[in-house]
Amino acid sequence: MTDQQKTSNDAERTIQLPAEELRGIAQRIIDSGALGRSKVYARLLSYLVNCAEKGESPKEIEIAIEVLGRDADFDVSKDSAVRVYIHQLRKKLDHYYKKYEPHARYRLTIPRGQYTVEALETLESTKNETRASTEEATPPPHRRKWWPAAIAALLAMNLLAISALWLSDQGSGPSAVASHPAWARLLDDELPILVVMGDYYIFGELDEAGNVKRMIRDFDINSEQDLDNLFAAEPELGWEYYDLNLSYLPEGSAVALNDVMPVLHSSGKPVSVKMMSELTTRDLQRNHVVYVGYISALDRIRQMLFAVSDLRVGDNYDQLINKDSGQVYTSTAGLPSFDEPFVDYGWFATFPSTQNTQVVVIAGMRDAGLIHTAQALTENRSLQAIEKQLKTSKKPASAGFEAVYQVRGLDRMSFDARLEYAGYVDARQIWRDEFELVK
Prior knowledge:
The chain is α+β, with helices and mostly antiparallel strands and 439 residues long. The protein folds into three domains: 12-138, no CATH class; 171-198 and 250-431, no CATH class; 200-248, no CATH class. It has helices at 19-32, 39-54, 60-66, 81-99, 127-137, 141-144, 147-170, 184-187, 224-233, 251-265, 281-286, 302-308, 367-376, 380-390, and strands at 12-15, 106-109, 118-122, 193-197, 200-206, 212-216, 241-248, 271-275, 288-294, 311-313, 319-322, 328-330, 341-352, 358-364, 401-410, 413-424. Strands 8-4-9-14-13-15-16 form a seven-stranded mixed beta sheet. It has a three-stranded antiparallel beta sheet with strand order 1-3-2. A three-stranded antiparallel beta sheet has the order 6-5-7. β2 and β3 form a beta hairpin. α10 (251-265) runs parallel beside α13 (367-376).
């Protein structure tokens, strides 16, 4: 195919690249991590690129056998696995160019209804104008109705980043609580600090026409990768669910972040903010991590925390149980009635995740518990109360400890709080229990 054989619009045209350059672009996409943990997408992209070099367009059965490892009797009319993987790979390529190379001269794409890879050359003089007008004129129907929600999510994330920057300017000196053991290990070295916000990943359910009919929150699906893994295990669900690239934060997270940031910035070290749905193992290896959010959104660090803690989840994430004493902490703040009092709980924990890094968890069952816990961790009197209870702990003193707060309120307003429990934790338990972290 020559440069002039196909023109998609004034800004892009299909072009036949040398095989070496085509492979190089594909490898760059694979190395970026944009295809996720599953190796299937990397194999599929490499396979399609190899076919493109030969001028071949593989059949669905060929992809099923050579990429997905299916048997020769694989029935493409009954199993949509190939179509689902192609659909997801097309989305991942689009995401890669939006996030990593928005101004790339050449873009790899999979044309609709085809199993081939094409290279598009972008003409810089008209690319931005053409792309904007095209997206405005012909957005996919199942995305068209949700773009306001996506914009709102992006604005929320931007507000968090702006808040962090603003607060960094306000920290004129070391915080009075920075030397307390709850914070000292994070602030006394050169490692950067990563604040992880407990967001809720949201995906869409499609109707028969391919439009999003409702949004879904599933505690087992906490990221795009989790959704991809579900599609890989059950390919038929790729036609029922859709990645909206959307998540939301509880209201109390912003209030809690406002209390925590001045303490973190008092060290003068780099502090960044990231969503839990984007957290990776590399982040945990290279940063001190401060989690802010609901207990139900702990996700990537949930198993790590419960491995060291004396607490466990009860009937749901509105209930924690002390393993030693049997004490039950149950929140009634989920759906408080008008003029009805409620009880909520907050949870603080700090422990070394590796020899060099520390994890701090500031969490709540609901907003009231989360907000109070963040406030308590920035006040000397509350920190001294934790120290007093730790002296009665039956466990040996260590670099890790935890605390539980009870918060009472009315009409979603908090009026009273108290420290219910404090004790040391044993971080060695992390490596005695088997758990998986996202790569």
